[in-house]
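W.,

You were right to be curious about this one. When I first looked at the sequence I had no strong expectations either way, so I just let the prediction run and decided to look at it fresh. Below is the sequence, 287 residues in total, followed by the output.
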Amino acid sequence: MGYDIERFVGYVNEGLLCSICRDVLEDPLQAPCEHAFCTACIHGWLVHHSNCPEDRQVIDVSLLRPLYRYMKNDLNRLQLHCRNREYGCEMVCSLESIDRHERECEYSQIPCSNAGCSVQIERRNLDGHLAVCEYRSRECPNGCGFTILSAEDTQHNCVAELRTELELLRSEMICRVEEAKHEMESRLDSQRRHMVQKESILQNEIEELKSQMSRMMSDVRSLMAAERQHRQELEQAELEKRELMELLKGLQKDCRLTTTEGSRKSNFRPLTRLESVKRKPREVTVI
C-alpha cells in the first residue's frame, strides 16, 4: 500500500500514484509499459494475474524495474504531514526524509519497555509512565540485592529468594565442574592417545636405527676382515718381493763371477800363442 494522498501538501502528479491502490507510490516499481506501482501492490496483483492492471499487457516480476530517476526525484520532493499529526505533531517534511522523522518523532506511539506491560504511549511521555508503571522493576529495599517488580512486593521473600539463588548457583557450579571434568578427561584421553601413537612411532624408529646399526656393524666387520686379508696379502707380497730381490741379487752375483772367469780364460790363451810365436824365431836363429 502507498502513502495516503490526504497527507500530502499541494498537488500530486497523477503519474506518481499507484495504478492499483491509487495512493502515492511507496517503494515504486515500473513495468515495461511505463506504468508504476507500489512494490507490495504489484507483487500481490501478479500472484493472481499475469498482465498490467492498466493496459493488460503481459508482464512478469522479472520485467519490473526501478522508477525512472526524474520520477524518483519528483516523488522524493513531495511534502507531507507526519503520520502522528492526529496526536499533535505538526511536522511537514519531504517524502525522502519522512521515515527518519517518524522513527524519532516525539508523538510516535511506542510500547512500554517493562516486561508484562502492554501500554502504548507517546515517546515524549515514556519517562513519566516508567516512573509509575506497575510493572517497573527496582532493587529490594531490604538489601538482598534482588530486582523486584512493584506488583510482586507483597510476595517477595528475601530468604527464599536467596536460597533459590544459592541452589541455582550450586547447580550451575556443579554443571560447570562436570563440564570441566569431562573436558579435562577428553583432553587427557586425547593426549594419552597422542603419546601412545608417538611412543609407537619412536619405538619403530628405534628398531629401524638398531637394524641400521646392526647392518653397519656387519659392514664394518666385513671391511675389517677384508682389511686384514688385504694386509696379509700385502705382507705376503712384500715377503715374496724380498725373496725375489735376494734371488735376483744372487743371480747377478753368479753372472758377474761367471763373466770374470770367462774373461780370465780368454786372456791366458792369446799370451801362450804369442809366446810360442816369439819362441819359434829364436829357435830358428839358434839353429
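Here's what jumped out at me. The radius of gyration is 64 Å. And, maybe more interesting for your project: The mean pLDDT is 84.

Coffee later to discuss?

I.
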